[in-house]
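All the exercises in this workshop are built on plain-text protein records. There is nothing in a record beyond a sequence line and a structure line. A learned vocabulary of local backbone shapes supplies the integers on the structure line. The question running through the whole workshop is how a given chain folds. Here is such a record, shown just as it appears in the course material:

***
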Amino acid sequence: ARFHPRQLNQQAELPWLFYISNAVFWCLAMQPNISLSLHIPHFTPSIPVSTPFWVGALVIIALQMPVSKLAVRDQDHFRFLRFGYLGLFAGFATLVCFPQSAAAVIAAAVLISFGQIFYGPSLDVLTARFADKTNADTGRLMSRQMLYQSSGSMAGSLSGGILFDLAQRLQLPVLNWAALAVLALVMCWYSYRTIPTLYKQAVHSQRQ
């Protein structure tokens, strides 16, 4: 039998807010890579700078697969997107409340790692399912998603030091963490109804 490749729907596209949410998430998630490296010598010199990073990495290695298996339906994955932002919010809020506590720094790193555990795999699954439901080019959608993710990571790495320095200059040492917590909470709110609704509307209107 002759193989006939499926006709792709080149017009199918994820909602722009879906991509923006991805960029904002990784912008926030990358902030601690710079900010904690500056925060620890100033506020919690009793622990090595590397401590929250290897603790967070261990959390991701140990729990990424077990946690990702808990989401099956689309609504489960959208719930995990919210959990991702809530993890970031909880981590940043911990640093706002206890900026000089070494235990709080480690706890914040764990919470932020949980945010990444919830968010990343579920976003990939939703992107792949959208491509399947609309007969879109999966590679094109994944490439665009990675573009936004990389842009967010770059912006986070760039702005992390700027926000920290600004907070110290204004003598408001937790200003950077407070700003990040507020943004994470706003994006969690958008992830509750707006993004799932736009996603479902896009699937319905572009299904072939």
The chain has a mean pLDDT of 92. The first helix runs from residue 16 to 43.
